[in-house]
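ingest -> fold -> write
write: protein_1
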Amino acid sequence: MKKSLTSLLCVSAFCLALLLAGPGVMAQADSSTHLTLKQCLDLAYANNLDLKQAELDAAGLGVDYRQAKQNRLPQVNGFIEHGNNQGRSIDPFTNSYLNQKIEYANYGASGGVVLFNGMAIQNNIQQQKLALAAGKQEIQQQKDNLSINIMNAYLLALSTADLLEQIRIQAHLSSKQVERLAILHQEGAVPPGQLYDLKGQLASDEINLVNTKNQLDAAILALCQLMNIPYNPAIELEPLPSEEFLKAYEGNAAGIYQTALNQLAAVKAASLRTESAEKGVKAWRSQLWPTLSLNGGLFTNYSSAARTAQFLRTIETSTGDYVKINGTETPVLTMRDQFDMQKITYADQFKNNYSTNINLSLRIPIINSLQGRNRIERAKIQLKSAELVEKTTKIRLQQQVEQAYLNMTATYNRYKTVLQQVDAFTESFRTAEARFNEGVLNSVEYLTAKNNLDRSMINLIVAKYDYVFRTRLLDFYQGKAIW
């Protein structure tokens, strides 16, 4: 590691010297377009539509959970009915037949509360509670997936930007050599072949510069699309600290996997879905138990045909019969009350017709086309499916962690080897350049040394960002911040 650090410092000093010797200096990034990885993640969280859909799905599960708890409350319903009948109908006031137009009204309220139903309500509450918790974890899972994609795109853009800068340095060095050889060629101090070899190298560097610039634009575009923001080619990304590339990763695959089981939202969501499915089976089994309910109601009505007799007076009236007294027919009289039939007011009927009822009911499921049994079987299938998803999730996680750890180890070893290669080719190129400038080395040997260094520098950039991605991926599995 000490040698690797020394090599990296040498390379950095070499690149810095070439960069400062160039015609331009990198401009300072505008704060409005200067983004860190954390800012990119925040933008993606705020704008990603899949994440918003997951949040809406979780909100729907919250409504289901709230409804499951409120199912313990009594159910109260009221009704109001107004209408009229024409022709032969039953008077709702007297229950006698009438043949006239009747206006009527019925009012009532009824309610009931379940006292016992085999714990179905309680099991359903637990089922919906666990489903809601799983939904929240699935939101985090969406964030996790988005975080990995954003990190990958961010590091790709950074590595491409570093490659672009490296190729600019290469092109600048080739340009300086072409300028030097052009002067020497005019003086006849070098053969034409050497000048044209360097011109060809400069053209190759410029082509690589154009291609890499296009790749950088494509990487920035992909990052903007993941953040769901308009494409801005002026975006500048915050580089990673240099110590990211110098340290070996601590931990092992088995320990990382055990941590991931307790940290990763995908595993938590799968486990919660399994627990929710278990409660679902219990909830459907509870439907086979009798249901005991307490019910009650209020009722009153009105009829336009309702009448009441109002006493007026008592008078003597003839019965139509007679008796003979001494041979004379004498009519028989009787005392008869006189009444006036008056319409009963709406308010009086509403009060007088008031009635209540209260009852206990026991509903015993005997046979309902075996729907209950089939629902239980379906719930068991859903439970097995959830268990399979959970098991698959854990197996895939273990495989992903093992693969990621293997890739990290291989990448780190490659990175250290490339550092040594850069160190060697840097010294080789330094010697070749000095000899070429003195005229004791031909252009082919010089270009070979230069291309070896250029390739090793590019390989170093690719290797170091590949290593950073692998280490941050392992951090992600352990629930650590990746920014």
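write: protein_2
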Amino acid sequence: MVLMNSFTLTPSLQENTANMDRLFENVDILIKREFENQHDSSIKFCLFCCDGVVNGDAINEYIIAPLMRGIISAKGEALLSEVSARFLTVGEVEESQSSEDVIKAVTYGDTIIFAEGCATALIINSKGFALRSSSEPEGEKVLAGPREGFTEGIMTNLSMLRRRIRSDELKLQFMTIGCKTNTSICICYMDDIVNKSILEELTNRLKTIKQDGILDSNYITEYISESSAMGFYSTGSTERPDIVAAKLLEGRIAIMVDGTPSVLTVPYIFIENFQSNEDYYLKSGYASFSRILRILGFILTITVPALYVAAVTHHQEILPTKLMIDFAAERLNVPLPAAVEAFIMLLMFDILRETGVRMPSYVGQAMSVVGALVIGQAAVSAKLVAAPMIIVVAFTGITNLLVPKLSTAALAARYAFLLLASCFGLLGLAAGISLLVTHILSLKSFGVPQMMPMENLCPQDMKDLFIRAPWPRMTTRLSPISQNKVRAVKVHK
């Protein structure tokens, strides 16, 4: 990627500084500082940095002061090499002949030093961003386990990950994407566990991204993930470092994006939609029960409205006589058909839910609950909808909360099933379920079938599928994802 406004570095300090002034014209946060060595006035320097993203005290103490007061013997092309080796007391210094590197560095919090007689520049790490402190992610709160979450700083996030995996097998590879933003991303993986073909495929997909700006991990998701008509994900996303560490140890690859706390993980299998990091911090029995509830919750949230409409519209005979009479009595004065009633109430519930999310937290929760109660009760009192429909919609909304990772897919499937059940009854619902199962079986993530554990029902693979077996019994990883299938776990006999 070539920057449109790049220039050629020359031995003339005046030309280099003039080019920087031209490129950063009207950029008032750019700081320019010209100075010379007090022992030899012919040794001249010019420093550039951006205010607000650098550590000013470190620049004054560890860069400017040593260059002004030190006795420098070298001149010409060797000047910056001696300065870097003998005078700069900072952790990271790089000498570069590329103006593209200089422009990227100075806008990212590094300090640039030009010297008279040198056709190169020193890039000095002086970053001093203002970042929020680490806190537990709002959407991934747990009862047990770590309370730490990623922040918007990629180096801070990498330090959290490195603290959890202290192994030389943890590899961290940086890339820059985004023609205008030059966003740094980091590919993280365990070298002895990862499937190298998946890693190569990921790298190739990332290299094909041509976008002006990458501001969040979702930008990358839409480029590298396989499409799904129903909205199923083929990449994972989390803000918790403990989850990322666990995924890496399973053979997955993590993609960190500078500027966002959301970290992507690939490949992504379907059962991960129902897994929670809490499953591995609590007893296996309770974790297994919770996972089964989530699976059941997804099934119920997409089928209950369709089942209700099919029963009261096409198949009253499947209901117990007393229940059928009660439903008929409730619907006696309702003007709308059950199908239209269901669509309107589900749409109203989704509007309230979306409004609650967009409002401030202290208002949104109250608005969602009070709005649903008031509107539902008013609709029943006005005989616009039947009371059983309110129960169905409320139950659907509650079960939807069990599987937040599948909210998009559940929304699409719920309305599709409701439409089929309204037109064709249980036959339409059965056809819809068959199509959904077929679609799920066809899903892939970086060439790995998302339902791969069910294709060959290996006992070891089943131990972290519908249930979570105790740790001593889970001795292998999923083979299509990792090249090293055996865990380094002591098995108790």
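write: annotation protein_2
Confidence is low (pLDDT under 50) at residues 489-493.
Residues 49 and 106 are 6 Å apart (CA to CA).
pipeline exit 0
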